[in-house]
Amino acid sequence: MFKLVMSYKHICKHLLELILKVKIRKLVDPETEKAMKTGYESKGIRLDVYVEDDNNTVYDIEMQVRRYPEAWLGRRTRYYQSVIDFGAMQVGAEYHQLKKSIIIFICPFKIFDGERHIYTFKNICQQNKKIQLDDGSQKIFLSTKGKLRDVNLKILNFLKFVDGLPVKDKWVDELQGLITELKTDEREKASYMTYQMKIAEERDEAKNEERASTALDMLRENEPIEKIIKYSHLSKERIEQLSMQLSNGTPHAPVL
Known about the structure:
- The protein has helices spanning about 1-5, 10-20, 70-90, 155-160, 170-185, 185-220, 225-230, 235-250, and strands at about 30-35, 45-50, 55-65, 100-105, 120, 135-145.
- It is α/β, with parallel strands linked by helices and about 260 residues long.
- A hairpin with a 4-residue loop joins strand 2 and strand 3 (about 55-65).
């Protein structure tokens, strides 16, 4: 439903303006479920909401339903960044023509230290924090579980709304009204059900990856297979398959 709502340009524009604290003059029509990849054999990505403005900036807004370890979140944004840059760079273009990019992840769970609602990352010199590498990229994480008063009331109300909490806010009321309208539209209802199925599939996939990771750790410790079955909840056949991969040196953490 987030993707459907963000496909409305004025909604998407207002959210970006609230998060970034800037005035955006003009956006092109947002693209939802935008598929991108860098090559035939490379891993593709599917962006929740991809949009460009008239100031040479591209935005990717993700509703991160699935909870990854923090290191995975960081690497996911890194890969998204590289694929977006690859798609934005034309043959023969100069590096200074590369569009600015801002990746925004909205997370309905605690992230990092669990204190803030917003975390903004740029490349900073470790020897002198006053020096910033101006590569034109930003990565922003919003958390619904923050504790500090580090965002304005409009963003805080939006995050509460994402978390399913009651909110008194004119813009949130508009969002809720649009969602209600979309759910009653038969065409959009079908799309919404498809998104719900994808979310369920992602949750199942996350559980399977977690179980496989547990089994691999126990295999490395040479635990008996009965014990691995008990704690990983995987079948004997799946554990034997993982054991074979481990002996061949092939298993890695899942690519995001």
